[in-house]
Structures are given as C-alpha cells and as structure tokens.
Design goal:
Elements: H1 7-21, H2 30-40, H3 47-59, H4 67-84, E1 94-95, E2 98-99, H5 101-105, H6 107-126, H7 133-147, H8 152-162, H9 169-189, H10 200-227, H11 230-233, H12 239-242, H13 248-252, H14 254-271, H15 280-291
Antiparallel strand pairs: 1-2
C-alpha cells in the first residue's frame, strides 16, 4: 500500500494521540487547557507529524514508537502559530479556518497556551516509554535546537525585524531556513534517534532532504498567500503583503518563486536516491508540500 493511502490514517492517529497527551477538558486551570486543545486539535495539515512518520517508515521505526515525537513536534508548531497570530506579531484573526486562539480566548490566555504547548512538547518526549534514555535525549536535543534562538524563535525575531525593509532573496532564505525549515528538519531527523548505529551518511542525506523541503514549504506558503483559496488555506489571503513583509513572490516574482520551489524539490529527491524504494513515503511528502493547495 502506497504512503498516500496511509496519510489519512496517520492524520487520525496524531489527532487521537494529541488528544490523549493534552490535559483533558475541565482540568484545572480549565480555560488554559481549553485554549491549548482549541489550538492543537481539530485542524491543520499535520505536515510535521506526517514527515516524522514517513521518515520512520523509511528507517524501519514503527509508528507506535513515533507517536510521542509526532505529538511533540506538532505541539511546538502549534505554539508557534498561536504566538505568530498575536497582535504584537502577525496580528492575524484567522487560523486553520477558525478564529485565532487570541481571538477566541483573549491575548493573555493565548500567550499562556502557547507557552504551555511548548513545554508540554518536552514533557511528552521526556516521558516517552518507547525509547531508552539516550534516544529520548537525542530527540529532545533535536527539537530544542530547532525551537530556540538559533532555530524557529530566532527566525521569527529576524522576520519581525525585517518588516518594511528591503531584503534580497538570499536574506529571506536565511531567515526561513530558521523560522520554518528547522522544525521541518526536526520532524525528519527525530526518528533517526531511534535507530542506533544509523550511518552518518544516511542522517546527512535526510538532513539535506529536510533543509530543501523546509525552504520549499515556505516558498509554497508565500505563493498560496498570493493565489490560494482562503477557504482551503484557512488563513487570511494577502496578509503578508498587507504587513509589508518580504515574500518570495514579491522579491522574485510569482513564476520564479514557483521555479525555485521546484528546484528545491528536485534537490530533495536527489538526496533520497541512496535509500531506494524505501524512501517512497518521504518522496510522497515532498510532492505534497510543493503541489498542495492549502
């Protein structure tokens, strides 16, 4: 069965796993936990968990051994979305086709919900009963590095500093390799920690794949901000242009931005050549990322 036929099952799997790993509805403090569940459940493409499961399939790691990693990387991603949407950041009232968390629960609760989702990610990994301590520590280190000041958070800081400024494409790529790419890289590499003795060449190849796809993902997001259907994307169309943010279409033109995404896709596939047919799940994910409509 092709990976495409398993995607819906994996999306359902991570939804159930997230629901089980977040504090139940009504748990004190009830409003905070309601905001966490609102932000994390019932929506989203789940690309990062899917990449985690796809990488695991290629490496021979069973899905049940990656549920915690998939949930952890999604918790960090959702934390970033909650905070990105805040009035002090991107000030967006729509996320995943419904009101942003701060629009639904207020700014203060949204900040706290994002904080709690981030820390919950590491609680999940620390308490993972499927891996030994060294494997858990490896996953924690990968995810923490992707999240911090030299990863996603640092990229967001540079993004805010860059608003209204003239950037060239190389500047934007450097920013997005941190803001978007590092968490996608973590999703692909965390399963490597569950494979003792994995050759360095294999991990390096996966790293190259993830780096290319992280950047291609952001370019596609920028393209969708211009020509996407808001009912499909679940985000406010044209929001980047309205804030005066540099995007690949604004710097390169829409056609060249698409060609750049296609070139990165080709580089990503080349990185997987040594894995043969086993890499079909990641190849499918790469196609989906560059050809999606939301």
């Amino acid at each position: 069965m092709a990976f495409a036929e398993r995607v819906a099952g994996y999306v359902e799997r991570v939804e159930r796993a997230l629901g089980a790993r977040l504090p139940p509805t009504g748990t004190r403090p009830a409003t905070l936990h309601a905001a966490m569940r609102y932000a994390a459940l019932g929506g989203g493409k789940r690309i990062r968990p899917l990449l985690c499961y796809a990488s695991g399939e290629m490496l021979g790691v069973a899905p049940e051994r990656l549920d915690d990693a998939a949930c952890a990387v999604e918790c960090v991603h959702v934390f970033s979305l909650v905070h990105d949407d805040l009035p002090a950041m991107d000030d967006d009232a729509l996320r995943r086709g419904k009101p942003s968390t701060h629009a639904a629960f207020g700014v203060a609760t949204a900040i706290l919900a994002g904080d709690a989702l981030q820390t919950r990610a590491f609680e999940i990994l620390a308490g993972d009963g499927k891996h030994d301590a060294a494997e858990r520590l490896g996953m924690i280190a990968v995810l923490a590095g992707a999240t911090g000041s030299q990863g996603m958070t640092g990229g967001q800081a540079v993004d805010l500093e860059s608003e209204g400024k003239q950037l060239v494409a190389a500047d934007l790529e450097a920013l997005d390799r941190d803001k978007t790419g590092k968490l996608i890289r973590a999703a692909v590499l965390m399963p490597c920690c569950a494979v003792p003795g994995l050759p360095h060449a294999s991990r390096d190849a996966l790293d190259r794949f993830a780096e290319c796809m992280g950047l291609a993902f952001q370019i596609k997001d920028d393209v969708l901000d211009v020509e996407g259907d808001q009912t499909l994307t679940g985000k406010t169309k044209g929001a980047d242009a309205a804030r005066g943010k540099a995007t690949y279409p604004s710097l390169m033109g829409l056609d060249d931005a698409k060609r750049r995404a296609d070139a990165l896709y080709a580089e990503a596939l080349a990185a997987l050549e040594g894995f043969g047919a086993a890499a079909e799940p990641l190849r499918w994910m790469a196609r989906y990322i560059v050809h999606r409509d939301r």
